Amino acid sequence: MARTWERVEESPAFEFGRVKLGAPATRTVCRRWLAQTYTDIVLSEIVKSESVSLNRSALLALQRATHATLHLISTELVDLDLTASEINALANLADGHGRTVSQLGAAVGARPTTLTSVLDRLERRGHITRGTRAGDRRSVLIELTDSGRAAAAVIAQTLTDIENRALEGLPAEAVAGFYAVLDALIKEGS
């Protein structure tokens, strides 16, 4: 572990301020540096590169857009210290309605068993609570706490801002067509 830290500390990204390992500032600086490095390498060299075949596959284009969007979301929300899966879960709870694990799993596109570790982390951080649903004690209800509502509000606003910037200037028909394609792909995958 110390060897890894020594190498990180000696890297140019940390020359502007050496902070002891484990301090919150270190994690934030590291995440920002990693996010920028990811952008520089992956997005510049792969997603935007002319060497990558930009064939007209809607699925490949969607996959490239998904990776670029996930990176953008993670970069803009780096201060929340959440994973993409945690951001997705909180975004789907942002409307304030509690959901069962199955309902949330369907909304985020994950199996309930996969979602369990995400929910464990969010619960440990105080963003969600798990309780029983009225009338069905077997069903677990996921609800946001005050800190979860605050994080979800920031996430929802960030997603709205990104979407508005991306779709600004596009004709309404193009946006409607985009949603029609997404609906068709979701239907095909269901």
Automatic annotation (TrEMBL):
<dbReference type="InterPro" id="IPR036390">
    <property type="entry name" value="WH_DNA-bd_sf"/>
</dbReference>
<protein>
    <submittedName>
        <fullName>MarR family transcriptional regulator</fullName>
    </submittedName>
</protein>
<dbReference type="GO" id="GO:0003700">
    <property type="term" value="F:DNA-binding transcription factor activity"/>
</dbReference>
<keyword id="KW-0804">Transcription</keyword>
<dbReference type="GO" id="GO:0006950">
    <property type="term" value="P:response to stress"/>
</dbReference>
<dbReference type="GO" id="GO:0003677">
    <property type="term" value="F:DNA binding"/>
</dbReference>
<keyword id="KW-0238">DNA-binding</keyword>
<keyword id="KW-0805">Transcription regulation</keyword>
<dbReference type="InterPro" id="IPR000835">
    <property type="entry name" value="HTH_MarR-typ"/>
</dbReference>
<dbReference type="InterPro" id="IPR039422">
    <property type="entry name" value="MarR/SlyA-like"/>
</dbReference>
<dbReference type="InterPro" id="IPR036388">
    <property type="entry name" value="WH-like_DNA-bd_sf"/>
</dbReference>
<feature type="domain" description="HTH marR-type">
    <location>
        <begin position="55"/>
        <end position="187"/>
    </location>
</feature>
<dbReference type="InterPro" id="IPR023187">
    <property type="entry name" value="Tscrpt_reg_MarR-type_CS"/>
</dbReference>
<dbReference type="Pfam" id="PF12802">
    <property type="entry name" value="MarR_2"/>
</dbReference>
